[in-house]
Amino acid sequence: MSQPIRNIAILAHVDAGKTTLSERILFAAGEVRRPGRVEDGLATMDYMPEEKERGITIESGVAHFEWKDSWFNFIDTPGHVDFGAEVDMALSAVEGAVLVVSAASGVETQTIAAFKKLREAGVRTILFVNKLDNPDYSLDDTLINIEEILGVRPVLMTLPQYENGRMTGVLDVLSQCRLTHSDTGEEVVDDGWNVEDGWDGSRELKQHYAEAVEFASNFDDEVLKLAMDGKRVPPKMLLQALKALANSDDYALCYAGSAMEGFGVRSLVTALTFFLPDVPEFNEGELGQVIRLRHFKGVGEISLFRSHTDMERKAWPAGFEFSRLKANLLQPVDEIRAGDIYAMRTPFETELGQTIYLDGSGVNPETQTSSLEPQSSIRDKYQPLLQTRVECLGSEDYHHVEKSLNTLSRMDPSFRVQKDDGGFWYLHTVGEVQLDVLLARLKREFGCEVRAGSPEVRWQERLCRDVGPVENTFQLGPHKISIKLSATPLDSDAHDIRLSAEFLETAPREILAGVRSALLESTEVGILGKGALVGVCFEVHEFTWTEGALPPMIKKACADAVTKLIKPADVRLYEPIMELSLECPVNFAGLVTGDIQARDGKVKEIGGDGKTHFLKADIPLRKIFGYATGVRSISKGTALYSMKLLGYRPAAL
After folding, report:
1. Cis status of the peptide bond prior to 469, with omega within 30 of 0
2. 37: closest CA among 49, 48, 23?
3. Greatest CA separation found in the chain?
4. 616: closest CA among 576, 580, 583?
5. Euclidean distance between CA atoms 281 and 213, whole angstroms
6. Phi/psi of residue 220, nearest 5 degrees
7. What is the distance between the alpha carbons of residues 506 and 547, in angstroms, rounded to a whole number?
């Protein structure tokens, strides 16, 4: 019997302790000699210089380990909102996940977003309540917070123990034992403790075992019968019932402890072995699927690849190589297994979501049926809010910079590059952190020296009246292209292109695709250069071309037609409005609120517990540039905040 494979991701709000927990899991599994500390820049999973400098996860790190005869592929995902696309791609390749909730802050904005992503992706989720090494943080309050906000009933499976205000161990509900630290810092079973001896915590542990039985009885008739008869339910029987409970939308298994101190980790990893589903069945004839793209200096581009078959090296397609990826280290392998995750080198350029067949051929990810989201749908989900002009320091670097930017945009679907005919590019990013990281990677990984302007808010330009039709002709040598075009506004942010029946019937597929692509590309720049043109329906009444006309000619003819058709007076600007969620000590509440109002922010929700002040506000993105520095100064570094796009409203200019 082959070794079971478990593919898992770990998600959390920023600063909930996600990467620290990842390090502790690797330490518990014997993969590292000691857990690296994020604040020291020594986290195994955060290998990028930008991650070490900022103390945040940017790329989904991958590690592998064995635990209780199971093989784990472990993906540590970013918590920062700028890198949400990384989380989406990671979830496409896993069956289970750990969602970390900080007992210091409870369920936060990104916790809710992560939980929603997990539910939408159908990924079985286990909760870990972290930072309980501080006895001032309440486990009970956090559990209530989880139930109220996430809408699931947490079933507690470990209980923290304290002595003189210090965490000394955890009690495991299922095994009814106590876990403490050995001399080397590993979690081990305390053989001197027995639940039947009436020692400290015994009554509480039995109470939670009975509670687990009560909840599990909803999913197992045998457990229900024993419970109703007042008989004890054996741990093995309870384990089977909890497997069904873990797959329910109404409950969530919950482990509690401290990643920093290394308590509760052993029970959590054991739960990942027991309660997560096996890898699915894959289609015959498929080698596997590309789930991420990476670029390493000196190595080049690699694909993170999920295998769909068992295959030894001698049967691999020509030119293919597979390795284990541990952070940024590649370790060659001699065979691949279905469901396992590898780093893949291929003789051709791959795309996110692409399926590779057994003969080494690939299929376009945009046209295939797949569990992995196509790159285009992820691009639609993450609207770039900033645009930054970038140009070469020397004209001889132009083609190298362009190729490098295109590679980075293929690796991150939420980042877009818009080429300008003036010899520069606009980088469209979700936020400032993503922009800073992309520019740093451009220099470090690709050796590109560029000059970047200041980031500007990327507005929306919306058509506000019917325009056209207009005619435009472009001729180059013997080739000539003519187009007759009109446009009408749409109520939504979408684009639509309508083609005349005659054009649809007579034009080859490549001409139709070229016209559609050219018109859509022209909307990316906008009419005023402030942002994308949205809410517009183009109608192509006539389109003629000479045989042999090249795609760049189609692009030029369509772009010039749009410029002739839509004038600045025909569009209205809409600006992005952000929802700011912030908490800080109450003594800074007045200063923080006043600063938000000075930035044209509207406070819509206020709360707190007497010690911590909480608020939500709507605020224009253009007014909140550099907010991290400002709020840090006002609150002396004590404020925590997160932002998300709320929508767009007409700009008051």
Report:
1. yes
2. 23
3. 96
4. 580
5. 32
6. -150, 115
7. 13
32: DSSP letter? S
In the CATH hierarchy, which fold is given to the domain comprising 382-455?
Alpha-Beta Plaits (3.30.70)
To the nearest 10 degrees (0 to 180), the angle between helices 235-246 and 221-228 is: 130
For residues 640 and 204, the model is more confident at 204
E-assigned strand segments in 166-250: 166-172, 177-181, 187-189
Amino acid making up residue 484: K
Structure token digits, residue 433: 């952190």
Cα distances from 519 to residues 12, 230, 264, 483, in angstroms, run: 40, 72, 56, 11
Q: Check if the beta carbon of residue 103 is closer than 8 Å to that of residue 130.
A: yes
**Residue tagged 């925590």 (tokens):** 640
Query: Which tens digit of pLDDT belongs to each residue from 378-411?
Result: 556 677 888 889 998 888 889 999 998 988 888 8
pLDDT score of 35 more than 80: no
Provide CB contacts within 8 A for 513, sequence distance 6+. Answer: none
DSSP 359-394: TS-EE-TTTS--SSPPHHHHHHHS---EEEEEEESS
Write phi, then psi, for 286 (nearest 5 degrees): -100, 130
Q: Cα 319 to the chain's mean position, in Å?
A: 31
- In this structure, are residues 576 and 644 in contact, taking their beta carbons and an 8 Å threshold? no
Can you spell out the DSSP letters for 194-227?
-GGGT-TTHHHHHHHHHHHHHHHTTS-HHHHHHH
pLDDT in tens, 446-494: 888 899 998 888 898 999 999 989 999 998 888 899 999 999 998 877 6
The fold adopted by the segment(s) 576-650 is Alpha-Beta Plaits (3.30.70)
Buried b (16+ CB within 10 A) or exposed e, 37-72: ebeeeebbbbebebbbebbbbbbbbbbbbebeebbb
CA 22 to chain centre: 16
DSSP assigned state of 393: S
Q: Answer yes or no: same fold for 382-455 and 576-650.
A: yes
The correct CATH number of 5-275 out of 3.40.50.300, 2.10.109.10, 3.40.50.150, 3.50.50.60 is 3.40.50.300
In angstroms, the CA 515 to CA 597 distance is 47
What does the DSSP assignment read for 254-311?
EEE-BTTTTBSHHHHHHHHHHHSPPPPP--TTEEEEEEEEEEETTTEEEEEEEE-S-E
Q: Tell me the Ramachandran region of residue 115: left when phi exceeds 0, alpha when psi lies from -120 to 50, beta otherwise.
A: alpha
Half-sphere exposure of 363 (CA within 13 A, CB side): 16
Which element (helix H / strand E) includes 79?
Answer: none
